[in-house]
């Protein structure tokens, strides 16, 4: 999820000479760095995808594979016993005094009251609000963070938190351990999760998976474009457009999700693991 803190946050903690204080701490996955060791601004994802520079990087990829594997092992282990859950996405830039913050907070509370755990990207803004609503209601509040060039720690309302180096490992956890997605107003990160979920449902990779857009006014432009361009030109079918449902209240969003899963018990929601 994109944060509004920007790369300038690296400089705010440095002195005039660019040196870091011993009080500054940077996290790189499970590793904590302090002081001068925290000056590096690139991330694991960036170094994996960056093709520039010498070709000796090919000799380090086996180690990256092991690191990637460890993220899946840690994620599966930590989330295996999570009850049915809903992932809530939205802008990290949503301020506390924005009505959208209160909407996300109410949504988190309503999901918790309906028996769902709430999973977010663990950041500030709408993510924090959803975690907060769930936590304040006594629900299970989960945050799946990501290493970014600028620091973004998990918000204080997360009960179970995991930090990932690689986006694709984190994305797998969202899809595997959620039974629905709710997209609050957001930016590129929210759109990324939205269209990935739509693609997975469209191609039959995941089933019984409601996708809810919260806020008809915010999402109306996107929906109009999908109808007027993609559906009209046959790039998607009308049935694909029906994968999306719009809600304007926490109660409506939860009702849509509950009705989609009506008659299904926990085993049916989780499905069966394919034996090795």
From TrEMBL:
It comes from the Bacteria. Belongs to the LOG family. This is Cytokinin riboside 5'-monophosphate phosphoribohydrolase. It holds the Pfam family Lysine_decarbox. Residues 9-27 have a biased composition (Basic and acidic residues). It is an enzyme of class 3 (hydrolase). The keyword Metal-binding does not apply. Signal peptide: none annotated. Keywords: Cytokinin biosynthesis, Hydrolase. Residues 1-40 are annotated as: Disordered.
